[in-house]
Design brief:
Oligomer: single chain
CATH class: Mainly Alpha
CATH topology: MetI-like fold
Shape: globular
Helix content: over 70%
CATH superfamily: MetI-like
Largest sheet: none
Distance between the termini: 23 Å
Strand content: under 5%
């Protein structure tokens, strides 16, 4: 068989696999709803109808804007700060060896236990949600970037010394381009955890946002709204994660070619 034919057939196969996976999830969801009862787990069609009602609610755009501002600000801070700190710890091996177990320990701590401290430091409002999102997402980005710099090819480091590049020039022209695939891999995890942290911040101390709506639905024992908001968040996270995964694969193919 022609290799080009095999390569051309791969994307349709992946699309078919994706459709089959979605169909399987929907069938499992429908079956679970029949088994548990619609009062516990609403059916897919009812969830979609409830999601439409939530989106068309006049107050929904304000909640969506609030969550979007907190999440994207937290993600930007986590990516920039995590990448810079990871580059520094990767280049300075002694500092990295000291900080790595500390970062792993911080990563394993349930972040919700730190929320009272976050509230005392930043108060109620947008700043606390941003801070809570950052502390969730920054550590994976730091660890992935640090590991990538440690595993960089020696020829890159020799080129830095030969050209006598400054730290800023070294990071911008050598280290970051050489470690982009690993940074993107860390970004995939950091994205999901930043979104989780932002929503948790809205659930426990906020009057606006998607997390606040979700907490209201939990307090009122409203499974249709809970499932509708969860479906919306799951869809958003899945689409972005698939996009980042494709970007990661593209970058790795480029480095291997």
């Amino acid at each position: 068989m022609n290799p080009d034919t095999r390569l051309g057939a791969a994307p349709p196969t992946r699309w078919l696999d994706g459709l089959l996976l979605v169909a399987g999830i929907l069938l499992f969801w429908q079956g679970a709803s029949w088994a548990l009862g619609t009062e516990v787990l609403p059916r897919p069609l009812r969830t979609l109808a409830q999601l439409q009602r939530e989106v068309l609610d006049p107050d929904f755009p304000q909640h969506l804007i609030e969550t979007s501002k907190a999440f994207f600000t937290a993600l930007l801070i986590a990516v920039l700060a995590g990448t810079c700190l990871g580059l520094v710890l990767g280049v300075r091996r002694l500092a990295g060896d000291v900080m790595e177990p500390i970062l792993i320990a911080l990563y394993s701590i349930p972040k919700i236990s730190l929320y009272p401290i976050i509230l005392l430091m930043f108060g109620l409002g947008l700043s606390a949600k941003i801070a809570f999102g950052v502390i969730h997402g920054i550590i994976p980005i730091v660890i992935f970037t640090m590991t990538a710099v440690r595993n960089i090819k020696p020829v890159y480091l020799r080129s830095i010394r030969c050209h006598r590049l400054s730290p800023w020039q070294s990071a911008l022209h050598v280290l970051i381009p050489a470690t982009v695939p690993e940074i993107v891999a860390g970004l995939r995890i950091g994205f999901a955890l930043t979104l989780l942290g932002t929503l948790l911040g809205e659930m426990f101390a906020s009057q606006r946002g998607i997390g606040h709506l979700l907490m209201l639905a939990i307090d009122r024992n409203n499974p249709p709204t809970i499932m509708a908001l969860a479906l919306m968040l799951f869809t958003f996270a899945t689409v972005v994660s698939v996009g980042l995964l494709q970007w990661d694969r593209h970058l790795r193919r480029g480095t291997q070619s």
